[in-house]
Q: What sequence folds into this?
């Protein structure tokens, strides 16, 4: 397993680490290579790039390449480390490459071993941006990039068309199996660049035994929240990101201020954004790494208000569902595949502020309805998006592709 970071580093890195843990629990031997760690590495984790002097050299080489307008063009990490350990593994599974790993590394490895790549964002088929937002240039060939100079490209020279070509070469490799967490991002990539192997959809899942619902009044008592007022939760890794659409959530909350809601925020929050809530009672929990406390916070809410305007298959929605809480928000990316609207929550078109405000009011007016949606959400997790089913599907895919790869080699 290869990812940019450990599970605290974002949804893609979290997916990599959790899958590694689940596979180990199922009896498989897994090593998880991470470029950076936010906590002490687990016994099955190793530093990507090798010892510090080698890793520092790889960083400098990538920095020099980026300065020339080619962010992560050459497979320095492959020749520094992965080439020399590849015979120890049956396959390699990559997750978030952006800003860390070259697509040339995937191409080089795929000549020697089966390679799997879970596509968590648009960077797999753009010239470098994670989400193009209003830009549609990636649909033909990237160039004159409006995000040039910002993360993750960090260069003033626009060679995004050449970088997109590198991604096309990776997509053309039969030794690389692309995996998509939702239909939306699978469709977007296939429209831009055909894949040598048929794409596989593997919707993100959680461990329902770690994310457990608590009765709402009990959860509120434990958190010191009122029992007689509606409670709304907003959650994102970084609420200040424009893509997370916090301004839509805050406006919807202002529109229901007459209902005296209590607002909880979960994530690395921005005080400036939270100040826009005005006179509405507000409690911030910050970033919560403990899954039990996180589930307690989700359980306390009547509604999880989800307003990302571009997202793949967000773990926050899965966590809310696992905690028995209804999701109200935008029908973004893969969210409609998770939340069946009017069954496990209520979704409106992306950026539909009036529709969002009306949906939130409707949900808060009928606590029995939101509880019914929350119960159905939990059942959907147990039936469709759980650890056991995910591991079964993934191991079956690994074996199927391994056999194909051997036959074609």
A:
């Amino acid at each position: 397993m290869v990812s940019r970071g450990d599970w605290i580093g974002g949804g893609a890195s979290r997916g990599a680490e959790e899958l590694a843990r689940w596979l180990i629990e199922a009896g498989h031997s897994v090593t998880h290579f991470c470029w950076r760690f936010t906590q002490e590495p687990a016994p099955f984790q190793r530093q990507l790039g090798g010892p510090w002097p080698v890793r520092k050299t790889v960083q400098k080489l990538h920095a020099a390449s980026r300065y020339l307008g080619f962010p992560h063009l050459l497979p320095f990490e492959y020749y520094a480390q992965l080439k020399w350990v590849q015979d120890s593994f049956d396959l390699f599974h990559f997750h978030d490459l952006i800003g860390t790993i070259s697509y040339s590394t995937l191409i080089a490895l795929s000549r020697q071993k089966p390679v799997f790549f879970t596509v968590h964002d648009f960077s797999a088929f753009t010239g470098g941006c994670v989400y193009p937002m209003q830009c549609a240039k990636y649909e033909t060939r990237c160039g004159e990039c409006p995000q040039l100079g910002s993360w993750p490209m960090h260069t003033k020279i626009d060679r995004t068309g050449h970088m997109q070509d590198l991604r096309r070469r990776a997509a053309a490799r039969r030794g690389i199996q692309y995996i998509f967490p939702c239909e939306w991002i699978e469709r977007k990539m296939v429209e831009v660049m055909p894949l040598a192997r048929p794409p596989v959809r593997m919707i993100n899942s959680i461990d329902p035994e770690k994310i457990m619902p608590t009765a709402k009044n009990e959860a509120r008592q434990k958190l010191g929240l009122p029992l007689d007022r509606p409670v709304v939760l907003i959650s994102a890794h970084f609420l200040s990101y424009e893509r997370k659409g916090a301004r839509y959530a805050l406006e919807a909350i202002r529109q229901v201020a007459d209902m005296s809601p209590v607002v909880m925020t979960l994530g690395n929050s921005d005080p400036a954004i939270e100040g826009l809530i005005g006179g509405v009672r507000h409690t911030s929990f910050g970033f919560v790494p403990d899954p039990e406390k996180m589930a307690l916070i989700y359980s306390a809410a009547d509604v999880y208000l989800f307003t990302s305007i571009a997202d793949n298959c967000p773990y926050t929605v899965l966590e809310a569902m696992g905690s028995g809480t209804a999701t109200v928000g935008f029908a973004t990316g893969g969210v409609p595949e998770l939340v069946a609207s009017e069954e496990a929550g209520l979704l409106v078109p992306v950026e539909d502020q009036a529709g969002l405000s009306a949906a939130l009011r409707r949900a808060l007016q009928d606590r029995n309805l939101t509880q019914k949606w929350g119960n159905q959400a939990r059942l959907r997790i147990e039936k469709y998006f759980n650890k056991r089913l995910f591991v079964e599907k993934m191991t079956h895919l690994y074996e199927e592709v391994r056999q194909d790869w051997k036959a074609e080699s």
User: Anything to note?
Assistant: Residues 2-205+387-408 form a domain with the Rossmann fold fold (CATH 3.40.50.2000). Residues 252 and 357 are 4 Å apart (CA to CA).
